[in-house]
Amino acid sequence: MANFQKDYDFKRIEDETLKFWKESGVNERMLNAKRKKTFSFLEGPPTANAPPGLHHAEVRIFKDLVCRFRFMQGYAVPRKGGWDCHGLPVEVQVEKQLGLNSKKEVLTYGIDRFNAKCREDVFSFIGRWNEFTERLAYLIDLKNPYRTLDNEYIESVWWSLKELYKKNLLFIDYKVVPYCPRCGTPLSSHEVALGYRDVTEDSVTCRFKVKNSEDTYLLAWTTTPWTLPSNLALAVNPGFEYSFVKHRGSTYILADALVPKYFEDYQIVKKVNGSELIGMEYEPIFPYFIEKFKGGKEGKAFVVIGADYVTIEEGTGIVHQAPAFGEDDFITCKAAGIGFINPVSEDGRFTSEVPEFEGMFVKDADRKIIEVLDEKGILFKREKYTHSYPFCWRCNTPLLYYARQSWFIRVSQFRQKLLEKNSEIKWYPEHIKDGRFGNWLEGAKDWALSRSKFWGTPLPIWKCPKCGKEEVIGSIAELRKKGINVPEDLDLHKPFIDEIKIRCECGAEMFRVPDVIDCWYDSGSASFAQFHYPFENKREFEKRFPYDFIAEATDQTRGWFYTLHVLGTLLFDSPAYKSVVCAGLLVDEKGEKMSKSKGNVINPWDAFNEVGVDAVRLQMCYTSPGLPKKFSYNLIRENIYPFLNALWNTAYFISECLNENLISKQKDIFRKLNSEKTSEQKEGISLVKALELREEDRWIISKTNSTAARCTELLESNDYDLALKSLIKLASEDLSRWYLKLVRKRIESGEEAAVFSAVYSLDSLCRMVAPMAPYISEEIYRKLLKGLTSDEESVHERHWPVPKKELMNLKLEFEMEAARRIVTSILSLRDSAKVGVRWPLPEAVVVSSDAKFRRAVKRMAPTITAQANVKNLIVKERSPAISSEIKPEYSKLGPAFGRKTPRVAEAIKNEDPAVIIEHIERDGEFKINIDGEDVSIRAEHLVIEKKASGGYLLDYEDDFAVLLNTSMNDGLLAEGYAREIIRRVQDMRKKLGMKKSDRIKLLVSSQEKAVAMLSAKEILEKLRHTTGASEAEVSTGKHGNFELTANEKIRDYEFFIGISRE
Fold first, then answer.
1. 417: enclosing H helix or E strand
2. Above 60 in pLDDT, residue 1?
3. Lowest mean pLDDT among 270-279, 324-333, 848-857
4. What's the predicted TM-score (pTM) here?
5. Of 36, 596, 834, 996, which one is the catalytic site residue?
6. Which of 1043, 979, 965, 1051 is CA-nearest to residue 1014?
7. 355-366 pLDDT, tens per residue?
8. 45 Cβ contact partners less than 8 Å away, ≥ 6 residues apart
9. Is pLDDT at 669 greater than 70 in this prediction?
């Protein structure tokens, strides 16, 4: 077919295909298709305030693959795009752009101006994202996306918050929460989990002098010296034993188990239980709050309390307590009646309450605090300590654990319910279900929801300053009904929403709580808020929820996967999704994480332009979805290009052989085979069977169907890598390298059965490849197969190949695979002996103890001898020409036999190798007696080396061996020379631009011995017939005039070849 180009040019294909998709409306038809069955998919919303990276391509490829596949299976697959528009990521970036460094500076700049800038910034790269999505061929509705900043979306979020409030799951409390002093806001536990890093800092052990004692000290350890000015208590474990230790004139109290860690020269004075230390008073190490707690009106202070969480894994078994800066400290101290102080402002700096450190950022004050402690003689020990510490996931500031009032969602009491709902979800990889995600659910904390920020969904809670009444608003209509002077052009964001007051029952005005909510709650609401549920599209939501499929990077187990799951469980008593794919980390070809600092980051556009989108998509699919993905151009050229080229070259070869007559003959067969009607499919199968199919035709048709069955199963279980490799095998090995090699001449001659079989396999391949590589599949379909196998406008609108059992023959597949393995083995031996396949060899012997395999090889002997170019094939169970040597495999013997290994190894060496092998092949083991005890020797305990005798070459695998005789007599040599000459004549014909039908005059001249071999009647006739010669002469002399001549050295002889047209 003239319009199918010979060379695979991905740039041309992508440009033409994108134009076709736009002009034909294919994508819109797929997005809006109405079908009986729906496959529901939920898009995780990115933020478009930075350009997309290659890691964004990875998970989008998986999502697109699944959605295209399910659409081809007959499902409607709505795919609504989404944008995450609120929160810290946007605010931090805008602050940098405006040069603002604190919340105070934002307030000075103006919330209205700041939020306007956020609204603008959040879509600053929307164009790049849309171009990226289009070029990647990620089919998703970007014309009607959900956006978390839209009033309709926010209204749905408000509805959900009111539902939680009505269930008593939304509450305010004073707790120690993770807090970013740079951003000026608390964070949720799942946000904190995104920012941990290993840091090495100073840890200190301090001496707290026991009150009214001469020289007795409690030893307490901490990794946060900056919290020591706020110390109000020391905690011991009531169940531990503590020692009073005499050392250099002073007495120290610490956990008995830890005494050797701190002292070498010491004397134990006495031992007590931790419970006996509770109530012991000590002198504060800093004087700032002594007056505050005199008399006890502000609570107790500087006293030992009990706490079960105190361990002896680290430190001294006595834990310093600063209730303002530790979640456990806060709870324990509150229960024990300890007072409260917080001398740190919201920007993380010490206040005037601690004058020595006033104005210093707390983490920067560590060194000075330690110096002061040392000067006072309080510092007992200072050492470096490496531990995991949380940093803000957006601005990279060290987080503080900081006591403040916040709004929370009551999650902790639903841990069991969350785990129950998780059991209903299919996770890929499966281990994440009960591992990374399940473990996180087991420790789920109450969700710190409120944020003291500006750009976000406003917390819809109004409070009365007079009577304290709360009002949670769940809709815009409710706000208009209860609000005072609500504007028509209502914007639900700050500062406008803060201007709306509500009349309280007591007569006063209620003011909105000024916080916004965690942006992860926004994205976690996408399951329902994208529909503006429950205000619109209620039936559509109920039809799709829970979603059949979602996919994002693995770190979303602490992010979007988690928030979706929590809200699905709390609001709807259901998981939000049925199956989820967690995409692994993207790494370079060395396995190192891609990062700008290492210089190994690949821009997605560079990758598209360098190797093509299909190649990028296929490389992402080449490794199991959940594992780290190695990505480089070298890997693509090694793993993917051979497959793409095999697919393309197969299509090109078929296109060169197709004609209108063949198309018209076979069109009806394909129409019926691909029909949705069972009756027509049966008729199509009968038409296929009526073709004069040969064994190889039936095999490739069967192999194509079994691959379709396997590929379907693998894609449905999200094993994209294994599905791809099954397609690579079908395209590269089965169809291109084997089947077309077997039937090339039949196809070139236009034989209907062979052409049908090749087109059938290519058509199925094209459809199965389409979800992974949408461009090349579309090109092959449109330029070659459309009008023959289907009239659909696009390959992506076609039905997924449904395996037809009537056309499958697994026995034949096994036999052909056996034949191919033997041919591969013989060709490998030829290669090692440097004997090309054009040279016929007298004999190959196949040896196998597997009777089924031997039967298969015997049945396929004609195929094997033809493809391997051997005259005779012998199949045996055993051969005296093969001998075996056995050596102990020490790496396996050691773990199996321990101290007996030397004697086992010696016994193996002393046994007859043939006997050992016979027993292992028959029984799976060979028993050897060592010290009166039988031990079992298995195949893995041995290194078995086989050798050939009698002049044979030997190649072997686990289940067979091949012996090859490479000696050639004159008759075989004559055939070989003839084949080599034929190939050179064919090349000469091409140079002259000759057609297959053109006849030639041929002269071959060489030395007398060579001429004698080639003059045999059957050899001369082969030369004449195969080269298209009317006359073919072989002589020792050169005579006559020729259009083209060549001098060739073939093995031992020089040849002159001359050809002319007749």
1. helix 415-422
2. no
3. 324-333
4. 0.85
5. 596
6. 979
7. 999 999 999 999
8. 82, 83, 84, 146, 148, 523, 526
9. yes
Ramachandran class of 1008: left when φ > 0, alpha when ψ lies in -120 to 50, beta otherwise: alpha
Tokens encoding 579: 């199956």
Out of 2.40.30.10, 3.40.50.300, 3.90.740.10, 3.40.50.1980, the CATH code matching 196-390 is 3.90.740.10
CA gap 821, 856 in Å, rounded: 11
pLDDT digits (tens, 9 = 90+) for 533-543: 999 999 999 99
* Cβ pair 283, 209 in contact under 8 A: yes
Whether 427 is catalytic = no
Least confident interval from 53-57, 352-356, 575-579, 663-667: 663-667
556 is catalytic: yes
**If you classify domain 882-948 with CATH, what class do you get?**
alpha beta
Q: How many residues does the chain have?
A: 1062
* Cα separations in angstroms, 115 against 118, 158, 437, 550, 727: 5, 20, 35, 31, 51
Which of 83, 221, 226, 560 is catalytic? The answer is 560
Q: Kindly report, as residue ranges, where domains of CATH 3.30.720.200 are found in the chain.
A: 882-948
593 is known as an active-site residue: yes
Alpha carbons within 13 angstroms on the beta-carbon side of residue 470 total 13
Q: Which part of the chain has CATH 1.10.730.10?
A: 640-807
Which of 64, 84, 329, 588 is flagged as catalytic?
84
Separation of CA 808 from chain center: 33
How many Å apart are CA 83 and CA 835, to the nearest integer?
A: 63
CA dihedral 364, 368, 371, 372 (to 10 degrees): -130
Amino acid at position 1042, single letter: F
Taking a C-beta distance cutoff of 8 angstroms, is the pair 795, 763 a contact?
Answer: no
- Phi and psi dihedrals of 508, rounded to 5? -85, 170
Q: What are phi and psi of 1018, to 5 degrees?
A: -70, -30
74, two tokens: 């007959």
Q: Is the pLDDT of residue 193 over 80?
A: no
* Tokens representing residue 366 in the block: 């560590």
How high is the mean pLDDT of the chain?
92
Class level of CATH domain 970-1061: alpha beta
If you search the block for the tokens 């939680």, which residue do you land on? Answer: 164
Give the CATH number of domain 640-807.
Answer: 1.10.730.10
What is the residue whose two structure tokens read 């007079």? Answer: 466
Scan for tokens 């997924």, then name that residue. 800
Provide the β-strand partners of residue 691: none
Choice among 21, 45, 52, 719 that is catalytic? 45
What pLDDT band is residue 590 in, cutting at 50, 70 and 90? confident
pLDDT at position 396, please? 80
pLDDT in tens, 920-945: 878 888 888 888 888 888 888 988 88
CA terminus-to-terminus distance, the chain:
30
Which pLDDT score, from 0 to 100, does residue 617 have? 98
Q: How confident is the model at residue 330 (pLDDT cuts 50, 70, 90)?
A: confident
> 3-class DSSP state for residue 1001?
strand
Confidence at residue 388, expressed as pLDDT on a 0 to 100 scale? 84
Nearest to 119 by CA among 492, 486, 392, 518: 492
> Out of 37, 143, 538, 593, which one is annotated catalytic?
593
* Tokens read off for 873: 């094939």
Mapped onto helix, strand or coil, the DSSP state of residue 409 is strand
What is the distance between the alpha carbons of residues 283 and 327, in angstroms, rounded to a whole number? 24
Query: Do 441 and 415 meet the contact criterion of CB atoms below 8 Å apart?
Result: yes
pLDDT tens per residue across span 26-36: 999 999 999 99
Place of tokens 């992506």: 796
| Whether residue 49 has pLDDT greater than 70 | yes
Partners of residue 943 on adjacent β-strands: 887
For the segment 139-164, the average pLDDT, to the nearest whole number, is 97
Closest CA to 626 of 880, 432, 424, 441: 432
Amino acid making up residue 298: E
Catalytic annotation, pick one of 93, 321, 530, 556: 556
